[in-house]
Amino acid sequence: MTFQEQIQEGIPPVLPQPQVYDPAINHAPKRKEILTTEEKKLALRNALRYFEPKDHPELIKEFSDELEKYGRIYMYRLRPDYKMYARPISEYPGKSEQAKAIMLMIQNNLDYAVAQHPHELITYGGNGAVFQNWAQYRLTMKYLSEMTDEQTLTMYSGHPMGLFPSHPEAPRVVVTNGMMIPNYSQPDDWEKFNALGVTQYGQMTAGSYMYIGPQGIVHGTTITVLNGGRKISKNGEGLEGKLFVTSGLGGMSGAQPKAGNIAGCITVCAEVNPKAVHTRHSQGWVDEVVKDVDTLVKRVREAKAAKEVVSIAYQGNIVDVWEKFDAEDIYIDLGSDQTSLHNPWAGGYYPVGLSFEEANDMMANNPELFKEKIQETLRRHATAINKHTAKGTYFFDYGNAFLLEASRAGADIMAENGIDFKYPSYVQDIMGPMCFDYGFGPFRWVCASGKPEDLAKTDAIASKVLEEMAKTAPDEIKQQMQDNIKWIQGAQENKLVVGSQARILYADAEGRIAIARAFNEAIAKGEIDTVILGRDHHDVSGTDSPYRETSNIYDGSRFTADMAIHNVIGDSFRGATWVSIHNGGGVGWGEVVNGGFGMVLDGSKEASKRLESMLFWDVNNGISRRSWARNDEAIFAIKRAMESQPLLKVTLPNKVDDALLS
Fold it and tell me: Which CATH architecture has domain 214-413?
């Protein structure tokens, strides 16, 4: 069968042969035993409902074995034999160009060069899934190949509920992931209901089909490291010769060494998984690999003396690095952590003193001891960081729930008031006041043709737009503009593409609309092919997350989620091609609600109208909320927005004299 025929087939009428488990692939760890005997029967019933009764006798033992061995039913037998990657949009079967674009993005999320655990349909973060099983993948792709622009596909945590009558201006796909009743949103609830096959953790851009590999975060990390460097700089000096220490080389965290190189510092990034280290090194995202901590000490001293710009992966536990550098008196200028601590008990963070294999075995077979070891490691980790910060190190939480989980482990991580953490979130200290409050966030696009020359043309278009805007930009946002112009002009030479021909930069509503408009005009002229717009959920308006995206909201509303819900509702009727809303992305199940979108630009007048309406709302919804929280930068930004659009009228806050409250 051709690729197109396999897509259109969906779940095969005749079962394919069982697949051989490939140990060379980076697989998800075994999930812990959590279902009762009766619940296991329910999980099997749930899995078998995708198949004709004639196939149940053959599949039931296989699915039971998967549940026993891996803690989940992935349906490996149904994994397609074609190569998984984002093909040019013209190669996808279908009646709707918008649906074809979504198929392209789904396959990009599962590309072996992009996905963390591709055979388990997990894109990044240890559990950020596109689908729960391969039957869902096959059925979804079939639906998309049949869809017209008069239909909408509804997705329930990876399950394609079906095609419903709709209209051309409605989203082609509506996605929800993990939207639990609040009282059922604890970590063990995810383990249980995911094992039952009724929900999944979509992370942010995994389950919303908008992940573009580690490039998606390398820009934000570059901006964060640059501005972290500016906070500690004296007399305007840069990061030359300065040391940044962090950990994690997974789907998102793998961006850190590349970002350190672009920012111009020495980066040491620890990672316990040898396959993740190999992947990032082979892709050129980290320069060197060191497996011995004494060798690491020597290498860092050499780099400091020569003021090198170099990134070093330490294959081992980050706690060993912090403790050794303290003992050897190696000064760390910037420190952070980007392990998946939103997922601490299932492979997001590993205990010190155990090999990777020993830890995985304990995780599956002795989860209570594993939890004890993790919390013991977090306490040691925090203690070592405290020793360095006492010497002057600037440490920031990277929104991965490190400080939150360390506090739950009893680590010395709380401020004197017993309420706040000792160290700021990078959003509180850097990204919130400098970017999000002004409306700057991660705008991204994918060239649907798959042609590198199309990406180069879009880079040039975006650069030209930003340069023109910078000429008249207010002083308050000139630095943000210049950082992004520098970024986009160096994007090609930094070889950021992994998977699809994609790009990301930070822009405000004005910039996003202007760039998108220029793309659409270029498509209409035949200069480039179709472009797919999107963003990370980690943005101005898409995410309510009290320990990350909305951590710089101080009016008491940071634990509310109205903004994210309004964002996705508003995007859906203003022209988004697909919309998504998730529980749990980035910082943990039950800790955040986040939403995203995708939008196809095809050069039409209709696309031009959609982009103007939707992108304006997508950003200014968040600015208005931040303004109401009395954030001065957001008040400035929303006033500018109201001046540019007479139909926008936002309630502004009145400040209260502190003396009246004393």
Answer: 3-Layer(aba) Sandwich (3.40)
